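Students often ask why we bother encoding 3D structure as a string. The short answer is that it lets us treat folding as translation between two languages. Here is a chain of 310 residues written in the first language.
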Amino acid sequence: MIYKKKLTLLSSLVILLGLVYILTLVFDPERQYSKAFAWLEPRLISLADGIEISGPAGTAVLKRKNNVWVFNAGAADYPVKQGRVEDFLAALSRKDVYPLRASSDEAREKLGLSPAAASRIIVRGGAGLPLLDLLIGKTGVVGGELYLGRAGEKEVYSGEDRFTLYTDSDAKAWYDLRLFPSAIDAALVQQAEVTLPAAHTPPASYTLRRSNGGWVLGGNENLALDSLKVDSWLRSILEAEGEDFDANAPAVIEGSITLRLGDGTARTIQVGPVDKEKRRNAAVSPKDHGYVLAGNTVDRLFRESGYFHK
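And here it is in the second language, the structure alphabet:
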């Protein structure tokens, strides 16, 4: 009985010593310390004009043009959520305390910070020079922490996970898929011209026009329409979003909506044929890129004239 207890104790010591030995290969206690810093100096944010984010879902490339961030997709530039970019840069430039965990190539490899295994964030400025080249490795022992390190350096730090929200998301997380800018208010619309993408030929067309504080149907001005329905419909158009971007405008136009504003300008949505998933490609003037609209979005926007009757 005593022999078994000694054997169990010795086995436990061997396991403990082995664990300590393995940990010393990764973490060097003599080099561990903490310091406060920001990965990206706040003063450099104004110089940033390019961002590359690589992770499990691929690589997203953002560029700043005319002080507006866009998603670069080869020959096309798509609008992105400016607030998301601001939050991302704020996370990089936030000063925090980062404990130094290791400082060897072997440790970087074990902690997922090799260039082949790590997620990566590159912020560029000026002539394409990197203002920051950050590698993001495995999750730390403490929940919610990551192993982090600059590319080309040996030091490995741990810190709060504020970055996988961006590195692990796909391109659509950056897209601003609104068809129209939020500055357009439904009250600015004076007239709406609709051509329905109906199955019959030619498709039905109608015009809605403001008159005496309400709405009437063009060609039948004596028929008062339900203003609440018209206003709600206009808001649904101005707040509509696509499912995705499309670099090309539809080759065939099957339906359109033109909103004429009080300042003399107009906004137009044109949709192409329906696909097998009931989606349609759409062109939105005056933009130079297209959208993919879900079938239920098209149905909500292209209402028959009878929908607005009282």
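Translate back mentally: Residues 3-7, 16-30 have pLDDT under 50 and may be disordered. Keep this in mind for the problem set.
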